[in-house]
Amino acid sequence: MTGARQPRQAPAAPRPVRPKARPRTATHVEILKSAAAAFRRRGYHGATVEEIAAALHMNKGNLYYYFRNKEEILYACHQYSLDILLALLDEVLASPLPPDAKLRRLIVAFVHTILDELHGTALFMDLQPLTPAHLQKVIAKRDRFDRGIRRVLQEGMDAGMFAPGDPKLLAFAILGAVNWIPRWFDPHGAAPSLTIAEAFADFLVTGLLGRGSAQNPGSLDSARDPARAIPFAGAPCAPFDGHQETPIGASRGRDKSGNIS
Q1: DSSP characters for 162-202?
Q2: Relative to the CA of 186, which of 95, 96, 178, 223 has its CA 20 to 30 Å away?
Q3: What sections of the chain are H helices per DSSP?
Q4: Residue 80 contacts residue 118 (beta carbons within 8 Å)
Q5: In this structure, what are the phi and psi dihedrals at residue 86, rounded to the nearest 5 degrees?
Q6: In the chain, which residues have pLDDT < 50?
Q7: SS3 of 102, please?
Q8: CB of 77 within 8 A of CB of 117?
Q9: In whole angstroms, what separates CA 194 from the centre of its chain?
Q10: How far apart are CA 68 and CA 44, in angstroms?
Q11: How far apart are CA 59 and CA 68, in angstroms?
Q12: Mind listing the domains of the chain with CATH numbers?
């Protein structure tokens, strides 16, 4: 027995495919710089996508080709700056440099990233607007840089080059000192960013040296070798305008014993 022919069902509509993350291009970086400047002037919530696009002579539709929304731009700003620092961290940790020269290079690079990359805002912008997934990734990278600083400090103590101390607290002191620079830095002042970076590195590293190391600063001199110098972008940040900052090394809470983590 044959039954009635069933009507042919229409093929299911294809599921939308989420676009893959595009590789970072010069246009991506220009958008991040424009966004960072806008975030610094107006804060994350005050800045608009239209403002970011207009500064680049783009319309909003063009900008959405590169980023889905403003939160994704904020996340990309964090990732961009942290990737610069972590790439140098890996290079420094793998190098044969003594601990004081390693720490000096990291401090100089940190100051450079704060003052010359993305108008000095990427490492300070508020984390609260980030989605939980993006927030987790940013914090993981910040923690990795923090741990790298502590590792170099511990290496210096173990080698007798640095005076004994708590690497965690010393890392907080170093990161806190550098994090404060954008509050007073004047890009039109007498001291350029490179001078400030060198001065802070000299002061912070020399303060850690043990008595024997303080009399022999040769490794610090080797870290100033032009062949090892870190290139500077030469685009200093805008003056700090009072928006909430979330610097690297900032405490995210306290552990069960009440210590900062």
Answers
A1: BPS--HHHHHHHHHHHHHTHHHH--TTSSS-HHHHHHHHHH
A2: 223
A3: 26-46, 49-54, 60-66, 70-93, 99-116, 132-158, 167-179, 181-184, 193-206, 211-214, 218-223
A4: yes
A5: -70, -30
A6: 13-21, 214-218, 220-223, 225-246, 251-261
A7: helix
A8: no
A9: 18
A10: 16
A11: 14
A12: 78-228 (1.10.357.10)
Residue found under tokens 């680049």: 56
What is the Cα Rg of the chain in Å? 23
Structural contact between residues 92 and 223, judged by C-beta atoms closer than 8 angstroms? no
Query: The pTM is what?
Result: 0.72
For residue range 82-137, list pLDDT tens digits in order: 999 999 999 999 999 999 999 999 999 999 888 888 765 555 667 889 999 999 99
Question: Tokens at residue 184, please?
Answer: 């007073």
Q: Specify the amino acid at residue 113.
A: T
- The Cα 62–Cα 244 span in angstroms is 29
Among 87, 101, 123, smallest CA distance to 224 is for: 101
